Amino acid sequence: MGSTAESEVHVAALWQGFAASRDPRLRNRLFALYRPYAKKLAVRLYVLRRDNSVSFNDYLQYAHVGLVESIDRYEPGRPVLFETFASYRIRGAILNGLAKETELSAQRQYWAARMRDRVRSLQPDAPAHGDVDATLDGFAGLTVGLALGLLLESPEEPTDESPASNPYAAAELGQLVRRIRHLVEGLPDRERELVERHYFQHEPFQDISLRFNVTKGRVSQLHAQALQRLREGVEKDRVLDREI
What we know:
The chain has 244 residues and is mostly helical. Helices cover 76% and strands 0% of the residues.
């Protein structure tokens, strides 16, 4: 394939020069020379795709990664054509990239489903038409409930290593997280177990409903009740702190 762009002699000279010097400029010339071959392999795998969840540009990007790795590892003195050597690595780079994409997609779907369940459980009943105050109160309650959930999933000793970090704020946040986790221990048994399983052990509502032998809707109710109790406990602590 390379002979159409440069003579075979010149291609061999490119390989010898790169093998001896590892000059990035020669690597770039080799990459440009064999890029159509990498694209052809990406097309072949893309045609065999099961769905359209990953774009062809991603296939091509992974193929380019495999091509660069192949150029860096190829030994031109061996009796193996570069295309033969590179085909395995390019295909492997594409398949490995697709596996990671699939795993990330599954993780995104999992966390999105968890968040949808939480939002549904915390959404208040529809207010009367035109009742702006009720709408705002409902939105505020939903926001606080979701924030409590995020705090429950936070480590007890949050760290922020950025240059603009505030150690006092981090300490206060850690104290709040520990307080909320302490409040969980005082919840009614079923609510406490639900919170521990969902937030600490990462079980979705559907699995908890099967474990509890109740409907998923009932799990949503217990979840909303538990977070409301936690919210009231946090607010009570703040009132006591102000009075001290």
